[in-house]
Design brief:
Keywords: Signal. The chain is an alpha+beta fold and 215 residues long. The chain contains four helices and eleven strands. The strands form two sheets. Strands 1, 4, 6, 7, 8, 9, 10 and 11 form an eight-stranded mixed sheet that branches. Strand 2 and strand 3 form a beta hairpin.
């Protein structure tokens, strides 16, 4: 499936509509590494995630990377580079705390209420060098694929401290596997998480049909 998705992205990124000249725009070999300055709260507000989707932004930054790109604070990552998530880590994590990890896509197209597209949820996560392992998978991870001409997507990773153990087989969580639509604030209250995310990171992505237009 991953190979098929990659082929699809290359086709969409490499060819214009019938009658147009071919134009390659997603041939991106190598590792993409981008550093963006500024604080975590300012980045979440600048890109419109706070306050619409997230009333209070995280204060600290998560370290995240795909196999072919680092995730910073709003850096652009081509969809081709988002196939394989490598790790998510929180250097300031506590050994005596369990965490919930949300991966969400704020695509900007949702009307009120401010819903987001869910990429995955991990619960009862102990602190480690990779938060993607060791906890319970409540909603399995799916690749965050931006649909054609859907605009800029802001794909975020958010870490919350838990107050209690969370049943990964809870019915509400199981429903999310199918719907993939989430409102963060009600979810945080329902599962008795600490009200504000302690850390986060996000990147931007977009999928467009590339056309070589005449001058």
């Amino acid at each position: 499936m991953r190979i098929l998705l990659s082929i699809l992205f290359v086709v969409l990124g490499s060819h214009g509509v019938l009658g147009e000249k071919l134009y390659t725009c997603t041939c991106i070999p190598g590792f993409l590494k981008a550093k963006l300055g500024g604080s975590v709260p300012n980045a979440f507000m600048k890109h419109g995630i706070t306050p619409r989707f997230l009333p209070v932004p995280p204060k600290d930054k998560l370290n995240c990377a795909f196999m072919k790109a680092n995730v910073e604070l709003g850096n652009f990552i081509d969809p081709l580079r988002t196939v394989d998530m490598k790790y998510i880590a929180y250097p300031h994590g506590k050994s005596d705390v369990k965490y919930t990890l949300f991966l969400v896509d704020f695509d900007g197209k949702q009307g009120p209420p401010p819903n987001a597209h869910l990429i995955g949820i991990y619960v009862n996560v102990p602190n480690s060098e990779n938060l993607l392992v060791g906890g319970d998978i409540a909603v399995p991870y799916i690749q965050p694929v931006a649909t054609l001409e859907s605009g800029i997507h802001r794909v975020a990773v958010l870490l919350y401290e838990q107050n209690d153990h969370i049943d990964p087989d809870d019915m509400e969580l199981m429903k999310l596997i199918k719907t993939r639509v989430i409102q963060l604030e009600p979810m945080v209250k329902k599962y008795n998480l600490k009200p504000e995310p302690i850390a986060g990171a996000f990147y931007t992505s977009e999928l467009n049909l590339c056309i070589n237009k005449p001058l």
